[in-house]
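User: Here's a structure from my thesis project, written as structure tokens. My advisor, Dr. K., wants to see whether a designed sequence matches the one we expressed. Can you design one independently, without my sequence as a hint?
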């Protein structure tokens, strides 16, 4: 990341995860009995919000006892912060919250520490909900390390939350005056354009992935590749690694016609109006690293 870059919205928090405490087998029991402990309850990918739009944390006794639990760390006062995760298919917990919202919808608007806790809880929570069985032998595993590992009682293997690295890149024109964005087929008729992204393949470097993905999706060769920052994106378990780059030849731009239906060069005025919600151009939401990359280019 360069000194001029602002960290992506879900990566701005400096929170105390107190990871060294996870090996204490009695930690969760003590924390759930402590009246000072606060719990972030998740229902699927949604968290409860208070009247002011901040996360609505509750005492342990108010959280669903049958949830999947994890230790998130400690707050500024040293009190424990826990996550209690329920599946989207379960009934919505009654916590007296003003509303419920998904990370992708409100993560960019929350205070940094709250956004950090939300993405942390959702990342470990999805793994706890979605991966209860040993991938080696199929036996149901047992939760260890205060929610951060699982052990198979049959074959003894230990498993940890999975993270899939993915690159995302803002491609500027050769002269730097325009930005190349693409419209994904998954968005249907919505006139949304975004930066280009893709998963890192086995045995592939981040830089090679950037060149490959942009060539595949937009037909453009790249130059002046630079790392810009990263953030977790638990949809379902990605770590998005952001880059900027310049096109070697602007005229090479073309969509692949399958994943990307259209690519367009936008000037700074068009991008700034899109960021302001003006005109027809729709850009990614404020929680995404894509928007951070687009915003950074618009200010360069």
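Assistant: Designed independently from the structure alone:
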């Amino acid at each position: 990341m360069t000194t001029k870059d602002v960290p992506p919205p879900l990566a701005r928090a400096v929170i105390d995860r107190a990871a060294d405490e996870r090996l204490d087998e009695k930690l969760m029991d003590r924390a759930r009995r402590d009246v000072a402990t606060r719990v972030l309850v998740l229902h699927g990918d949604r968290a409860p919000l208070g009247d002011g739009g901040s996360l609505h944390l509750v005492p342990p006794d108010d959280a669903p006892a049958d949830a999947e639990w994890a230790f998130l760390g400690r707050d500024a006062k040293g009190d424990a912060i826990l996550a209690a995760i329920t599946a989207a298919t379960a009934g919505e917990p009654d916590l007296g919250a003003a509303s419920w919202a998904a990370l992708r919808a409100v993560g960019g608007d929350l205070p940094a520490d709250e956004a950090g806790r939300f993405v942390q809880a959702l990342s470990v929570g999805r793994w706890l909900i979605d991966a209860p069985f040993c991938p080696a032998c199929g036996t149901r595993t047992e939760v260890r390390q205060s929610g951060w590992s699982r052990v198979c009682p049959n074959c003894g293997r230990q498993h940890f939350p999975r993270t899939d690295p993915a690159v995302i890149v803002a491609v500027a024109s050769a002269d730097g005056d325009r930005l190349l964005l693409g419209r994904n087929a998954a968005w249907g008729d919505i006139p949304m354009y975004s930066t280009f992204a893709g998963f890192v393949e086995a045995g592939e470097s981040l830089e090679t992935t950037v060149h490959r993905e942009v060539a595949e999706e937009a037909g453009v060769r790249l130059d002046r590749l630079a790392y810009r920052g990263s953030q977790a994106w638990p949809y379902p378990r990605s770590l998005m690694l952001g880059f900027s780059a310049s096109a070697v030849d602007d005229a090479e731009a073309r969509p692949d016609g399958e994943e990307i239906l259209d690519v367009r060069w936008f000037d700074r005025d068009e991008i700034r109006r899109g960021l302001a919600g003006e005109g027809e151009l729709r850009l990614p939401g404020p929680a995404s690293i894509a928007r951070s990359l687009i915003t950074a280019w618009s200010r360069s």
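When you compare it with your expressed construct, this may help: The first strand starts at residue 38 and ends at 43.
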